[in-house]
Amino acid sequence: MVIAIASGKGGTGKTTVAVSLAIAAAEESSEKPLLLDCDVEEPNSGLFLDIDYTSGRDTGVLVPEVNHEKCTYCGRCSEVCVWNAIAVAGEKVLVFRDLCHGCGSCGLVCPEDAISEITHVTGRIEGGTDGSINFARGILNVGQAMPVPVISSLLNEYLPRAGSSTVIIDSSPGTSCPVVEAVSRSDYVVLVTEPTPFGLHDLKAAVDVVVNQLNLPAGVIINRNGIGNNDVEKYCLASNLPILARIPMDRKIAELLSEGIPLLNGFPEYMEVFRNVLTAVREEVIK
Ligand code: SF4
Ligand code: SF4
Questions:
Q1: Domain ranges in the chain?
Q2: Which of 1, 2, 17, 184 is the most buried (most CB within 10 A)?
Q3: Cα separation of 211 and 217, whole Å?
Q4: 135 near 52, Cβ under 8 Å?
Q5: pLDDT tens digits along 16-75
Q6: What spacing in Å lies between the alpha carbon of 62 and ligand 1's midpoint?
Q7: Which residues does residue 135 pair with via DSSP β-bridges, in sequence order?
Q8: Ligand 2 touching residue 78 (CB < 6 A)
Q9: Which ligand sits closest to the CA of 105?
Q10: What is the pLDDT of residues 134-143, one digit of tens each?
């Protein structure tokens, strides 16, 4: 079972929920769960676990490399590239690697077979364990603008290794391409929000992508419950979205998390809350 954790905006407690679900899954099964940190621009979930990293490799985008001895400067590669990542100027072919999405179209249309592919390194994926949880994360290199290939590499490498273990995916905040990439292979999406007008606005955006466009089953965890109003509750009820848990606004929780201590280590009474979330999700997935 693959459970993705998402939120329409940053700072709602998505990583707290992802780490808590991984710890709860480790408690209830002898099979180690796998926590995948797909928030590659800020992969923070490993900070809450004492991970011993045992593997890692660079990853990136396959970009074109032009053989100028074969090239006739016909311009077809440039015409086919919707990203404007390759241009022909006189007797020069320019490749703008940071714009290239690695689609391979330019190589396919080249009549002279003058284009091969090389890897443009944009990030890194690495994995390890804290003893009870298997963990892997993607890291987008500083200055790089395309997180999706790093997320894709992470999922391609580690999802097949999970077997029957529970997989928890911590996705990027927001609703753009990195989130779609991170959640689209999951069986269920947990949407984390807070009960404020901003939280409701961003929850609606996340529901639109996850439920309406990707057609994935989803439920909601309300974090910092007690602040704001009950409009999120009303929206969930009207939209038939189950509220899986409510985590109260508590200064002590905020202090604990600021020290890098997982919620369930400081407040073991929440173990049952997250076990119940896992049970509810499992029942929904096997329906
Ligand atoms: S399509 Fe091939 S031959 Fe034509 S300009 Fe591009 S690299 Fe050169
Ligand atoms: S691989 Fe795709 S995105 Fe990159 S330069 Fe070629 S056509 Fe453009």
A1: 2-49+132-285, 60-121
A2: 17
A3: 6
A4: no
A5: 999 999 999 999 888 899 999 999 999 999 999 999 999 999 999 999 999 999 999 999
A6: 17
A7: 35, 128
A8: no
A9: 2
A10: 999 999 999 9
Ligand nearest to the CA of 93: 1
- The class (CATH top level) of 60-121 is alpha beta
Q: What is the CATH number of domain 2-49+132-285?
A: 3.40.50.300
| Pairing of the two strands 188-193 and 115-129 | unpaired
CA 125 to each of CA 37, 72, 143, 157, 190: distance values in angstroms, whole numbers, following the listed order: 10, 38, 17, 9, 24
Residue with CA at minimum distance from ligand 1 atom 6: 77
> Which residue, by CA, sits nearest to atom 6 of ligand 2?
106
Nearest ligand, CA of residue 89? 1
**CA nearest ligand 1 atom 1, residue:** 110
Q: What is the pTM of this model?
A: 0.91
